[in-house]
Design brief:
The structure holds two protein chains of two kinds. Chain A is mainly alpha-helical. Chain A has 14 helices and no strands. Chain A has helices at about 1-30, 35-40, 45-55, 60-70, 95-130, 135-145, 150-165, 190-195, 200-240, 240-250, 255-280, 285-290, 295-305, 310-335. Chain A is globular and about 85 Å long. Classes of the chains: A mainly alpha, B mainly alpha.
Chain lengths: ~350, ~290
């Protein structure tokens, strides 16, 4: 049953991805940007322009370009079907290679941030829910509204000013490792994991030190919606019949609260997944303030340079990961809440 | 847990509601009159570069001297930036750009979303199902990156920002209105209207539509806030309005290099403005939502 469900979800996911790719493909070609003149420079001759257009493959009919991109035209070379995301117009290297270098940074940032945000938000949301309408609840409510509606790039800059410039406890916002440190050999692409694999704990600590402020910024932004959601689900769980029964049975308040937490976490999981998918693209601004070199910064660079294959690659990867995360979380949801079956 | 846990949030939102109203009113006022009451031209640099703002203790004295005309020129309340722009003038002129973009984008997506949502919820056929799948695809785009793509490739103009944001927000309104229409269309008054011989389109527009507006209208306040955030974010990465337009995100961006070196004021003041504005819209939206639910 479960296998069939997973297979069906993945199949639907592929169809969704296909439509998305086609939409993005036509969308960026419909918009009135002129990537050719971007690459050929100022005042090009007609020949130079035509040559550049040819090199980029933009002189061919759009449907041929699409066929080539999807890998349906074997004579034109590899495409998506062969696992080839294309070649960047700016750097000339493979988009897949560039993304595989940038993606781990973003995933590392997001994972650290989500983990810390949950660690802080779940207890806070629980405390607020234990006495709805109490002082703690009021304060938490205003905080979560506030944190959920803030310009993250501005807070990132404030943190840099405070912790780097004024207090000097954080490193300069210039990437994950200081320029003097040699990066550990790439195994997984995650600097924190690679440094431990290479047996260099000092690099691991340095990476964590550099992740401190970007993670703090993201935790602040994320804590708003997460606290709000935990509180809401917790209030609902605490007023349900099984909690009443548990209390009647004479269980301690702490025990009852833990029961309720389990019931409250199940619906929260879905929203956390949506947030994770959202932040894959939403980490752009934080990454750019701290020059982390993640997927978001890669997206900014590609978009501003009209690098179509790279833009398509970024959207494809972000959407594919979001779909996978949704699937994984639905499975976790079924694991936590036995009433959910497929 | 002496009392059964009930949601007593309604009472506590009242002062928050008025706080939201006050912020929204102030920002709207500045959107209209901000540039007119600004002491300096927001797009004309002065010769005084990187002047820090006066200390808070000097403000009362400066305000008095300014009102009584003892000063040769108005003080730079928020200081000046590295180019010499008066930051106070720019911060209070910015709502004209930020709020206009947000209101226009929201208005456009609201009208389009309500109309399409009404069609999709009332007439369930192949066309409207296709519409829903298209809006699914649109909704699965990463919002910020898509906005960047649309604006950079279409050209960094105010109109293009509005269109890009409207395109990304329309699916939300389609979904909200459709859900509401689907719950309204099975009610008795709809059947009554139909039984009286009204054509379907009249029933949909005259009777179902007015009763299905609330969720979308309430969502507006939140959407306007997020549209302001997105507009500012776009200019922060260089994909939004062009300098020297007085726009909050652009101002934060141009101060970003100095803040690392200790000059905090060029980024801090526009940031406070965005922070309060978006919070105000969020608070208002939240209060409206609670009133509607109760």
């Amino acid at each position: 049953m479960l296998t069939r469900y997973v297979i069906r979800r993945i199949a639907v996911g592929f169809v969704q991805l296909f439509f998305l790719i086609v939409v993005v493909f036509f969308l960026i070609r419909l918009l009135p940007a002129d990537p050719v003149s971007r690459f050929v420079g100022l005042n090009p001759s007609v020949e130079a322009y035509a040559l550049a257009e040819r090199n980029l493959g933009l002189d061919r009919p759009v449907m041929v370009q699409l066929g080539h991109y999807l890998g349906l035209l074997p004579s034109e070379g590899k495409g998506l079907l062969q696992g080839h995301l294309g070649t960047s117009w700016v750097t000339g290297s493979l988009v897949a290679t560039e993304i595989s270098r940038a993606l781990p940074v973003t995933l590392e940032l997001l994972t650290l941030a989500f983990f810390s945000a949950l660690l802080i938000s779940v207890p806070v949301g629980m405390i607020a829910a234990l006495r709805p309408g109490g002082w703690a609840d009021k304060g938490v409510f205003v905080y979560s509204l506030f944190a959920g509606s803030q310009p993250e790039f501005w807070w990132a800059l404030l943190f840099v000013h405070l912790f780097f410039f004024t207090l000097g406890v954080a490193p300069a916002p210039l990437g994950i490792l200081s320029p003097l440190t040699t990066a550990p050999p790439v195994v997984t692409g995650f600097v924190t994991v690679d440094s431990l694999l290479a047996g260099r704990p000092e690099v691991f600590l340095e990476a964590l030190h550099h992740f401190m402020l970007p993670v703090a910024t993201m935790v602040f932004i994320l804590s708003g919606p997460i606290i709000k959601m935990v509180r809401q689900n917790m209030v609902r769980a605490l007023s349900s019949d099984f909690v009443l029964y548990a209390r009647c049975a004479g269980l301690s308040r702490r025990r009852v609260a833990l029961y309720a937490l389990r019931a409250a976490m199940a619906p929260s999981i879905t929203i956390i997944g949506i947030l994770y998918g959202f932040m894959l693209g939403g980490a752009v601004l934080i990454e750019s303030v701290f020059s982390l070199g993640g997927l978001g910064q890669y997206a900014i660079r590609s978009i501003l340079a009209f690098d179509y294959p790279a833009i398509q690659g970024v959207i494809l990867v972000i959407t594919a990961i979001s779909l996978l995360v949704y699937l994984a979380l639905d499975l976790i949801h079924a694991f936590i809440d036995p009433r959910v079956t497929f | 847990m002496a009392n059964p846990p009930t949601d007593k949030v309604k009472k506590r939102v009242d002062w928050l509601f008025w706080f939201g109203v006050a912020i929204v009113a102030t920002v709207s006022f500045l959107a209209v009159f901000g540039a007119a009451i600004a002491p300096y031209d927001p797009t004309l640099a002065t010769v005084r570069v990187s002047v820090p703002p006066p200390a808070l203790s000097e403000w009362p004295g400066l305000i008095w001297q300014n009102l009584t005309g003892q000063l040769e020129q108005p003080p730079h309340w928020f200081g000046t930036d590295a180019i010499g722009f008066d930051l106070f003038s720019r911060v209070i002129s910015a709502p004209r750009i930020d709020l206009t973009i947000a209101l226009a984008a929201n208005g456009l997506s609201l009208v389009l979303g309500i109309f399409l949502g009404l069609l999709a919820g009332y007439f369930r056929n192949f066309m409207t199902e296709t519409l829903m799948r298209v809006s699914d695809v649109l909704q699965s785009f990463p919002v910020f990156i898509s906005a960047m793509i649309l604006v950079s490739l279409a050209g960094r103009s105010t109109e293009n920002i509005v269109i890009a944001l409207a395109m990304l927000y329309t699916p939300i309104y389609i979904r909200l209105t459709r859900a509401e229409v689907m719950s309204q269309r099975v009610r008795g008054y709809v059947e009554a209207a139909r039984a009286l011989g009204n054509p379907e389109l009249v029933v949909a527009l005259r009777h179902v539509l007015p009763n299905s507006l609330a969720p979308a209208l309430i969502q507006s306040s939140v959407t306007i806030g997020f549209a302001i955030l997105l507009t500012a974010g776009l200019s922060f990465v260089g994909a939004g309005v062009r300098p020297p337009a007085p726009e909050w995100g652009l101002m934060i961006s141009s101060g970003a290099n100095q803040i690392v070196l200790g000059e905090w004021w060029p980024s801090v003041f526009p940031g406070i403005a965005i922070s309060l504005t978006v919070f105000g819209f969020a608070v208002l939206g939240n209060a409206l939502e609670r009133r509607y639910d109760s």
